[in-house]
Predict the structure of Probable GTP-binding protein EngB.
Amino acid sequence: EKGRLLFAGPVTFVKGVVAMAGLPPPDRVEVCFAGRSNVGKSSLINALTGRKTLARASNTPGRTQEINYFALGEDRYLVDLPGYGYAEAPVAVVAKWQALLKQYLAGRVTLRRAFVLIDMRHGIKAVDHEILKLLDRSAVTFQVVLTKADKVNKATREATIAQVQGALAAHPAAYPEIVVTSSEKGEGVETLRAIIATLE
Ligand code: GDP
């Protein structure tokens, strides 16, 4: 894929945001990526954007939790939300992050879709349900992206897809189609890229 134009223009880092006041002007379509820490979010964003080092791999617990903005060409943003579910994260950090996340999801008018990443080996866990409920309440359409598909056999793959499909029925904000991906093998990356590129 080297040299191919993946989006309408180059992919660039815009800024890290720690408060609503820091958000760039809402002047273009944006999508966000959420998921438990270690779900493979950085790897997938790097695969999607065709870059090796755009999204930093696994943020350290307790580090300042930033919302990272990337420009996909000139007409859309990709927003990398901090990974959730760190067992060791300080309570104050978690609380601050949750407050910012709520404000962001409820107040960002140009946010078109949230991609919630779920590890194919684990399926939806309790901590994921919290964010799905928040997305329902914020009326932000979300789409589940299963990660690390290369790590499971066919039976696990089918079982996880069935578990997720069953769980989505309870979520009014869920987009029904699940995207299965492997950053390692490239599976689903083009599909996801096409979804992002065509959202209006
Ligand atoms: P993040 O914390 O969600 O940003 O997760 P990372 O992208 O840092 O990935 C966490 C770990 O999973 C790393 O060791 C990655 O190499 C690995 N990983 C991520 N995506 C895949 C994948 O598609 N297949 C395999 N086999 N490993 C992956």
